[in-house]
Amino acid sequence: MSFKNICGSLLLLVLVSCKTEQHFKEKNVQIAFIADVHLQDIFAKFEDNKYQGIKNPVTGEYASIRTMNSQLHSTRIFNENYFAFLEALNDIVKRGIRQVVLPGDFSDDGQPVHVRRLRKILNEYSQKHGLSFFVTTGNHDVVRPFSQDAVKTDFLGKDGKEQIISSSKNNFNTSKSELEPIITADIKNWGYKETIHEMRDFGFFPKKTDLYWETPFSNYTYEHYNFEEAQKEAVLEKRTYAIKNTKLFLPDASYLVEPIKGIWLLAIDANAYVPNGKLSGESDNPNDFSGANTGYNNVLIYKSHLLNWVKKVSAEARKNGKILIAFSHYPMVEFNDNASPELKQLFGADKMQLQRVPDEAVAQQFADAGIQIHFGGHMHINDTGVRASAKGNTLFNIQTPSLAAYLPAYKILTIHSHSELEVETVVVGNVADFSSLFPFYEEEYTHLQNSKNDAIWNKEILKAKDYREFTNWHLKELVRLRFLPEDFPAEFLKSIVNLTGKDLLEINKNTSETDTDLKSDFLALSDFESWTGFDMIFDFYRLKNADELAISEIGNHRLKEYDLVCRQLKKSNDTKLVLWASIFLKTMNGEPSDHFKIDLKNNKIDNLSVK
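Above: the chain sequence. Below: its structure as tokens.
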């Protein structure tokens, strides 16, 4: 071969190499993930009604907020998370992070008034601070695929009473209304068409600044990408899929975007709406479908096109040397530290949100489809799940906490290289103005007292010194008012809730064995007299929700006591106590979830948290 031909061949080889493997060159690119914001515009101004809320007795400001009673019966805070979201965004700006992902449930329930406020906030931070936002849909953003009337009966009204706000006069019981209901179209639940249009600038549609953008339905290729073609393919009418066993088609808001050279963000719209047995025959009837809160178990049945698309995208990412980061609203991996089987046995398959646990097939299939890193939300928990498929592929599922629940936090992904990623969890504990709504709740509490309400909430929550403590109180009251009566079997609860730690430790009556264990763990029996079964249950929920983040709040000493109690309970003849101990121990010992490094080359996860 001549020197000229050799040079030509080498040049061709270099060009091909550059095209097929555009190496990620920017060092330490960071992306923030804020899941389950559940933004409610607490200073809402309705477009078709002059109602402006109620007047704060201290500040004089008007606000449209939900009652404290409703917050403490819900797995999410409705009001104070508004301030927490702004605090998180400000923290992200201070850190110099420019890419921000919102993996669904960005709104309260997809109401126009709340989605509009979110859009304004995101636009403001984009224009003032140069942030780029990438959003996907959750079950609270598009409650049903098409717009529908809605009502909230638990807004806080005058004199601490409940205020109904509805989009229609026909969807609430007037006999239960303490105040004259407020009617506004701004409280309806938007469908895909309206929500995606309002949020179009945040990933759902291509931008000129994007290096690449596609959907599962795009006809172009990466090699022949141009913005004008992407715009044509992005219209929602071209982004629909057929619903199994029906003649219906629904929108799919999934997209792939390359905002930074070498980084592909894969936004999977995992809202899978199950059709009812009897359909209306209309093409856009929201009542023909159930909600989408189950997640990936139904994706495998009703949105199988997504799996095929993911396979194609991951293959293209490998071919072109891209780092692929997937995100969606729902977890792809079991999120109970592998305690789901025991939870089902003790509490029942329909309790503890176990219906939301993805089947093992989900992790297996998406791992084999090429997903290595996935950020999810939905569960309002901090967790890391790892699954290796039978074919040897590994999926790391990172559950991002909610700012509207204990423990409020967001995640930062630092991309060091193609194979080395770092994840850090940032707790949003100090929040400006978090207590500014407390005067409203004082009025509500007085009203409930005067009404002789039996299930009144604990007023101590209004003494919270910061937002972190406020969410701790929220969870404690949620456990007392909802989880204990709804989730725990009555007899089992009765058998442990009022026992002291000492009672639980000595449940097997083996004193000598207990004394030996106490000495080896450097514990004193008197330490166990300071807490009860309720405290243990509450701390179980703190660990379940916050994982490693709860350790400093509970304390290592108390955790050692729980560990010893559980080891003793596992020797019991009572099957329920054995299950409880197994569940608690697994919940205490999950994968690293606070600050950790992921090695994609060797499929390893290393804890970077300071113990």
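DSSP finds 20 helices and 21 strands in the chain.
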